[in-house]
Amino acid sequence: MLHQDNEESVKLATCIQEALNRQQGTRAKPKLGKPFYLLNSVKRPAVIVEMGFITNAEDRAMLTDPQQQTAIAQAIVSGIRQYRERAAKQD
């Protein structure tokens, strides 16, 4: 999970990463994605979700499995919802 160099992007990345960690059984932490054009040019909170590498057989199997794709998408949605709920409480 890569995020922009601002507080809201860090919050968004953290919420999504926490949901993915629960789904994947991992303990990854979001990282600053400073060299990425997308993260440097978008004005809203943005993140890049990297779930694996197609060149890795295990990752490829996970990424091409429709059930795993659905589970990953649901975790990402869960993280976005969590971010929005936290943001609404601060308003």
Automatic annotation (TrEMBL):
InterPro entries: MurNAc-LAA_cat, N-acetylmuramoyl_amidase_3
CDD domains referenced in this protein's UniProt entry, alphabetically: MurNAc-LAA (cd02696)
Keywords: Hydrolase
Domain MurNAc-LAA: 3-81
The UniProt record lists the keyword Heme: no
Keyword Repeat in record: no
Source species, domain of life: Bacteria
Protein name: MurNAc-LAA domain-containing protein
